[in-house]
Amino acid sequence: MNLTDVVRELYQTAMVIPEPFSELSMEEQEEAARLLAQFEELQQAHDTVPYAELLHPMLLSKNGRFQDALTLTRDYYENARSWETAVAYANAARRAGDLDLAVTLFSAAAEYDPNDLTCWLEVGDINLERGQFTEALTAYEKALEKENSNQWALPSAFYCRHRLGITGNWLTSLREVANQEGCTCGMEGCLTEIFGGYGSSDGIARAAYLLEKAEQ
């Protein structure tokens, strides 16, 4: 297994560990510590570790070392501003609870890669959960400009329009997404796992979650 494959496997294992750190079981904390130690061993053994600017701060945050992750990602970002370093810094800020900084950095990251829409989804999600529906809708609409049927942005935009009192049958639209028949062949899940993005099952789950929020 080459170094890139080792790093990819390490990342995939780390992604399984839930957040926040304060809610981890003892076994999950031990696993997070093991993964961080494994990464640091890779750093000692190799001059350059692929995707270190993304993986290292994530592992620090998974271990509850939020300030260390913020400092590291800020340094990465200030030394070489790019989509990767901005996203790493934004994620560290979000995990540390600095949502204003996270929104600023995700917005900056979107400018580094005009084809990317995931950062606008992140901005939308943060603002939606804070009840800032105008800002959230603006972000989702930017994502929809890039992919007009995005299965995450579309129901999210419907929800924001409903909460803002914009004329339209937005709850009906949400229900239509929630009640649609998703892919049952298994291919969609495989393809989205390989290539990224959101499939119909993501849209269904997102719409169902937002319907529940709307009815609370």
UniProtKB/TrEMBL annotation:
Keyword RNA-binding applies: no
InterPro entries, sorted: TPR-like_helical_dom_sf, TPR_rpt
Lineage: Bacteria, Pseudomonadati, Planctomycetota, Planctomycetia, Planctomycetales
Keywords of the record: TPR repeat
Domain of life the protein comes from: Bacteria
Annotated TPR repeat ranges: 117-150
Xref: Pfam families: TPR_16 (PF13432)
Protein name: Tetratricopeptide repeat protein
Source species: Gimesia chilikensis
Transmembrane segments: none
